[in-house]
Amino acid sequence: MTSWSERLGTVGVWRGVTDVDPALARTIEGLGYGTVWQGGSPGSDLRAAEALLDATASITVATGIVNIWKSDAAELARAYHRIRATHPGRLLLGIGSGHREATPQRTRPLEAMARYLDVLDEAGVPVADRVLSALGPRMLAMAAERSAGTHPYLSIPEQTAQARAALGPHALVAPEQTVVLDTDAAAARRTARAFLHHYLGLANYTGTMQRAGFTAADVSGTGSDHLVDRIVAHGDAAHLADAVRAHLRAGADHVCIQVQPVAADVTPVLRAVSRELGLATAPA
């Protein structure tokens, strides 16, 4: 079977699991994107992923991410095997430990992740069919040992390069890139800040941002313009496409774009970025 870097395609779309239905998945596929990433802690039964796979011809569906504190590992394994039987090679399990502010029981996440992966191993879920959301160096080391690679979230190209260096040339590095199609910088930053507000209150994300070189002042409050501009690409479609290319140049195999604001019709943005990247002959 081909590698994940080939099966995922160069560019995919990240969207909350409740915000993408079969019709949108077919549109995404038709625009040339290789993968739909289902965010917002998809359930371990994977019914939402299965519905998208049933409705499309070739696109990959990846979870971004299944939260180990909210999803039963044994059920996830059963769902994986069920879907693999009907859609071989089209499901990638993105797995993560979430953040402690939302999950009071989140203690010793490395140990908990190891136990979760043990269950998947025992149930015959291949190491090659899962990736970890690895924000810190120790989780990244686990990703290298016990998965196909990593799916970083809210990261910048320099972190993509660090992940590539840590994981080596053959692992999958598939970062998310948030985008706002708006050439009014002030308006675009307002949209970006509305999106980032939640994450700037979470220690694992602000810690990762500071490891990337942002200062405590950058991550405080609503975030500095410097932080907002680096993490959320905004501007015309050409600029958004350049943000994707920056991750690819830094060593990413695949980049998934997340369109903000989430409530807007994302199809025009996806069409415009697809054209800039030459993903497909996008319909008018």
Helices and strands, with pairings:
Layout: H1 4-7, E1 11-16, H2 22-30, E2 35-39, H3 47-55, E3 60-63, E4 66-67, H4 73-86, E5 91-96, H5 109-122, E6 130-132, H6 137-146, E7 149-150, H7 157-167, E8 172-173, E9 176-181, H8 185-196, H9 203-211, H10 216-219, H11 225-231, E10 232-235, H12 237-250, E11 255-259, H13 267-277
Helix pairs in contact: 2-3, 4-5, 7-12, 12-13
What's the short version?
By secondary structure, the protein is α/β, with parallel strands linked by helices. The chain has 13 helices and eleven strands.
Commentary on this structure:
The structure is a single chain. The chain has 284 residues and is α/β, with parallel strands linked by helices. It has a single domain (4-177, 237-277), classed as Luciferase-like domain (TIM Barrel, Alpha-Beta Barrel), CATH 3.20.20.30. It is 45% helix and 16% strand. The protein has helices at residues 4-7, 22-30, 47-55, 73-86, 109-122, 137-146, 157-167, 185-196, 203-211, 216-219, 225-231, 237-250, 267-277; strands at residues 11-16, 35-39, 60-63, 66-67, 91-96, 130-132, 149-150, 172-173, 176-181, 232-235, 255-259. The strands form two sheets. Strands 1, 2, 3, 4, 5, 6, 9, 10 and 11 form a nine-stranded parallel beta sheet that branches. It has a two-stranded parallel sheet with strand order 7-8. One of its GO terms (molecular function) is oxidoreductase activity, acting on paired donors, with incorporation or reduction of molecular oxygen. InterPro entries: Lucif-like_OxRdatse_MSMEG_4141 (IPR019922), Luciferase-like_dom (IPR011251), Luciferase-like_sf (IPR036661). It holds the Pfam family Bac_luciferase. This is Flavin-dependent oxidoreductase, F420-dependent methylene-tetrahydromethanopterin reductase.
